[in-house]
Structure formats: C-alpha cells, structure tokens
From TrEMBL:
Annotated organism of origin: Plantactinospora endophytica
Taxonomic superkingdom: Bacteria
Annotated MAE-28990/MAE-18760-like HEPN domain residues: 1-163
Protein name per its UniProtKB record: MAE-28990/MAE-18760-like HEPN domain-containing protein
C-alpha cells in the first residue's frame, strides 16, 4: 500500500509539474537543458545511433530549428516510473524535470530499494512476506517526508521558474 502511494504521488506530481511548464508556452530554447532534452528526445532516438555524417547533420538541424518552437509535450509521455519506482528511476525523474537530487533522497535510496520496492516486488510476485511493523512504520514516516520534500521542490521550482534556461 505504501509503495502504491509513493509511485502514484511521484507520477502525478511530476505530471502536474510538466503540465504547468507546458502551459507557460515557452520556446524550447528558453527552458532548462533537461527539459530541452525532453523536447528533442524523438529526434535523438530516431537519429542518434546513425553512423553517417549526413544523418548527424539532419539531427543537428532539427535540434537547432526546434529551439524556436514552443515546448509542448504530453506530460504522461515524459515521465515513466517503469512500474517499479526504485531510487534509480526516481533519480531519472528528478533529472528529467531539471531538479536537484536532494541529500534527503540520497539518504533514503537504500531503504527505498531494499525495504519498499523489494517488498512490493515480493508481494506482486506471490512471495510470502512477513513485515516488521516497527520498520514499516518508520518507512511510512520517511516516505511521507520525502513525498513532501518532492512536493515542496516542485512548488519552489514552479514559483521561482527554475525550469527556465
């Protein structure tokens, strides 16, 4: 249950932030590098592994011309929890949003993976789990605090317009 709240909140809050940034109707060249990467992801994926200089030139031309376009991305396509919101996936979401991975998140990483994600996976795959309720209560408090930290980080970024270049 705790895992479902963790994944759902991070996903929904991230989508709301991306909707907010998209609603600003900013040019791709005016947003932070992380969000520019989101804007040009399709071009990079389509041409990034090409070995010919002509393909690279087309890729660069597309990337440069896109800088003047309005950032308009479907938020649900930008954020992927991979149905397994581990610390590694959470870090990728933070990076995608152009945010800083806080020390508080780093301190939670091991417990998140070992206690929350691993237990969720055990239950999801039909393995018997005998939770330590003292540990579980501590983890609930920690996850709740991290969700609040993430919420405040998103609010701060939106208010201070940290999504700008």
């Amino acid at each position: 249950m705790l895992y479902a709240h963790w994944e759902g909140f991070i996903k929904d809050a991230s989508h709301a932030y991306m909707k907010h940034v998209t609603a600003q109707r900013l040019k791709v060249g005016d947003i932070c590098l992380a969000l520019r990467a989101v804007a040009v992801r399709g071009h990079v994926m389509a041409n990034g592994s090409a070995k010919k200089s002509s393909a690279h030139a087309r890729l660069l031309a597309a990337l440069m011309s896109q800088q003047a376009e309005v950032f308009d991305r479907y938020p649900y396509a930008c954020i992927d929890t991979e149905s397994n919101l581990s610390s590694k996936v959470f870090r990728e979401i933070i990076d995608t949003l152009g945010l800083r991975f806080l020390t508080a998140y780093e301190l939670l990483s091991h417990r998140l993976d070992a206690n929350l994600v691993n237990e969720r996976n055990n239950i999801a795959h039909g393995r018997l789990s005998d939770p330590d309720f003292g540990e579980t209560n501590q983890l609930v408090d920690e996850i709740w605090k991290k969700m609040n930290s993430f919420k405040h980080q998103l609010e701060d970024s939106a208010q201070r317009r940290l999504y700008l270049a």
